[in-house]
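Appendix C reproduces, verbatim, an entry submitted by the partner laboratory led by Prof. M.T., so that reviewers can inspect both the input and the predicted structure.
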Amino acid sequence: MWDREIRAMASTHAIIASSVFMATVLPAVLVPGFSVYSTHLSWIYSVSGAVVAVSVAVFWLLGISTPTKKHSLGYKLSRLSRSCLYFFLSCLFFHTVVVLYGAPLIDSAVETFSLAFLLTSLTTLRCLCVLGPNVQSWIRVFSRHGAMSVWDTCLQITVACTVVGAWMGAFPIPLDWDRPWQVWPISCSLGAMIGFLTGLVAAPVWIHYHRKQLTYKCK
């Protein structure tokens, strides 16, 4: 059971990481002038869209998302609408947090919201895919000893790595280096993406080497 869960996780993460690579390379090849620096907002929405589409498809195909007892069309539409609402509210939440940490309130509002959209795509979307629009489950997973499956632990690792990466990405911004990647919010979004990719690698590796200490039951 453990090996099967870990292999499924590693495969899922490899597919998602590949989508980030393709969303970065293909536009650079096909679209004149596209680059991570000069057209950074386009890159943000390119990789965010790829992560959203691939994550939803992969988690659904593998049956990783929380099963529902009700299968009526009305219930599914309600679940979808609540997921979209939570996604939007998460964007507003990250936008507010970033502004409180010192981001420009008005001058770079579009750039700040784009960073918030990226963070939501890398963190909140995974919670929606694995746990569904269930706030109680989210609180349980991110509380102390709240993980009840390997995917819960995976959420903890990837979300933490993404947020820490974005936070560390802000450190070079005030330095007087005059580098193109110091323009807001390039370093933060790159830090978030590096943290996210690090979490994708670290999660299955950490779970594999600590599986004997993990006592919860697999799904």
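The chain has a mean pLDDT of 88. Additional entries are available on request from the coordinating office.
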